[in-house]
Write a structure and sequence with these properties.
Elements (H helix, E strand, L loop, with lengths): L2 E14 L2 E14 L3 E5 L6 H8 L7 E6 L2 E2 L5 H10 L1 E5 L10 H11 L4 H14 L15 H13 L5 E5 L7 H16 L3 E5 L3 H4 L4 E6 L2 E4 L2
Parallel strand pairs: 3-8, 3-9, 6-7, 7-8
Antiparallel strand pairs: 1-2, 1-4, 4-5, 9-10
Helix pairs in contact: 3-4, 3-5, 4-5, 5-6
């Protein structure tokens, strides 16, 4: 199976006064299409930096980042924005829902930004609400939903533009065990339907939901290549 994501000798170096501090130190990683990979390691080890590289949110100091065999380090800003908007879905620990929009309005927002046809916006948002088990909660505001329900809305929103890659940064970090398990059930279902998932987590049990666990330490991959 082809590689969906590939990092080749990726370095990210930050200048701190007189010192160079490597956040990533020669990362090599390949994620195949339809794979579910969990990235673990202590705080400050480079997990989020690496996820930002894959998500076109940051560029390496050196090395290559390939998505579907295309080197995104050579892309112009408008092409990077297009990739972020259409090919990649993002899930965050803090949900990042708009508090003044209902659940279904939050899901529809990315599609409207990218000017999807209105009938498609309507159909897709309803289908995604049903997929995450929240058909009856579409008109509720985030403040009227539990943490687990909010995160499931965030998952549906991330999928609204039809991405083939889902990037999740501590998606269960603010959830209790039951709610976290429900979110992982959604992730496993999505992966079974063909979506490639890369997830950061500190929780070994949550990492166990993935098909492969990659361990990081001090900006390097130390296990699970």
């Amino acid at each position: 199976m082809e590689n969906k994501i590939e990092l080749q000798n990726v370095w990210k170096i930050y200048r701190m006064g007189e010192f160079d501090v490597p956040a990533l130190a020669g990362i090599d990683l390949a994620v195949k299409a339809r794979e579910f990979v969990a990235i673990t390691g202590p705080s400050g080890c480079g997990k989020s930096t690496m996820l930002n590289m894959i998500g076109c949110l940051d560029m390496p100091t050196s090395g290559k980042v390939l998505l579907e065999n295309k080197d995104i380090t050579e892309f112009e800003s408008d092409e990077l924005a297009r990739v972020r908007g259409k090919k990649i879905g993002f899930i965050f620990q803090t949900f990042n829902l708009y508090p003044t929009l209902t659940a279904v309005e939050n899901i529809r927002l990315p599609m409207r930004i990218h000017e999807f046809p209105e009938n498609e916006v309507e159909d897709t948002s309803r289908r995604l609400l049903e997929m995450v088990g929240l058909s009856e909660r579409g008109n509720h505001f985030p403040s009227q939903l539990s943490g687990g329900q909010q995160q499931r809305v965030a998952v549906a929103r991330a999928l609204s533009t039809g991405p083939s890659i889902l990037l999740a940064d501590e998606p269960t970090g603010n959830l209790d065990t039951k709610s976290g398990g429900e979110v992982m059930d959604v992730f496993k279902k999505l992966n079974g339907e063909g979506i490639t998932i890369v997830m950061i987590t500190h929780d070994p049990k949550i990492a166990g939901s993935a098909g492969r666990v990659v361990k990081m330490l001090d900006g390097k991959i130390v296990g699970g290549k």
